Amino acid sequence: MTIQDALLGYWLERRRNVSEATVSDYTNTFSRFVAWLPADIQIETITADHIRRFLDAMQRQRNLCGKTLANYWTALSSLWTWAEAELNLPHIIRHRVACPEYHRKEIMPYTRHEITAMLEATGQNSAWRSRGGRQVRSVRPEALRDRAILLTLLDSGIRASELCALCVEHHDQRTGQLHIKKGKGNKGRYVYLGDSSRKAIWRYLASRAGVQPGAPLFATKTGGHIERSSLGNMIEATAKRAGVANPTIHKFRHTFAINFLRNGGNVLELQQMLGHEKLDTVRIYARLAQIDLEHAQRRASPADNWRL
Prior knowledge:
- The radius of gyration is 23 Å and the shape is elongated.
- Strand 1 (128-129) and strand 2 (135-136) form a beta hairpin.
- The protein is 55% helix and 5% strand.
- It folds into two domains: 3-86, Orthogonal Bundle (DNA polymerase, domain 1), CATH 1.10.150.130; 112-250, Intergrase catalytic core (hpI Integrase, Chain A, Orthogonal Bundle).
- Strands 3-4-5 form a three-stranded antiparallel β-sheet.
- The chain is built from 13 helices and five strands.
- The mean pLDDT is 85.
- It is mainly alpha-helical.
């Protein structure tokens, strides 16, 4: 069976169980792998050495970082996990090809000051000068929507793709419950918003006349779902107006997680809120929250400050 035919079968089995972002990432990996392999190669003849040489070639030719190479390794390992079960082929990666090592980037959450500045910046466009030399700021028509988006990201820790997919019917205004229909791995879950976020969504929805339950919760000017790229552009533009450096969508998730633990939430609750199958990532947040408490104690220790 050619690798192209194998990939058709793989996606028929796996596509419904992974997010759109994962489909895009894996498809990119598979396309580069197929282009690198000899034409019409049979999947049965691909060996662990092919995988090693492909990863080496990608690192040399494209100067890819360790994290990207690890993502390639994960996608190819997923393909051979499927092939092992479906085609009865040996798994040529598991226990044979080591996953490329990489150092995780330091997780830096937004500060309270940065979040406040970004919320204020949702209301007005960047300043510009009129012909008369006056500094002018115009009110943004998307202000209510963008404020509601930022607060929802901060208050729930949901992923960008999950926020973009939300419909009005997925939000219970009475309880603040959000129903994430298709999270990572196509799994659903419920998260809850606090009063500030609920009020922001209420004000935004009140500004949309005749909104239907199946309509996007956060809509574009034309009434469609906001796309992930547009969401990222909005956050970057808002951060620029607010003077906030290095903004990302995922940084809201980090900020939620660390502050959830600081404010009394436990690790198992956080795992459920974030939709993680494993505790590994959640434990990273737990360590960061604990380090933060250590630093706070050193700064604020009554005994030390009173020199007792």
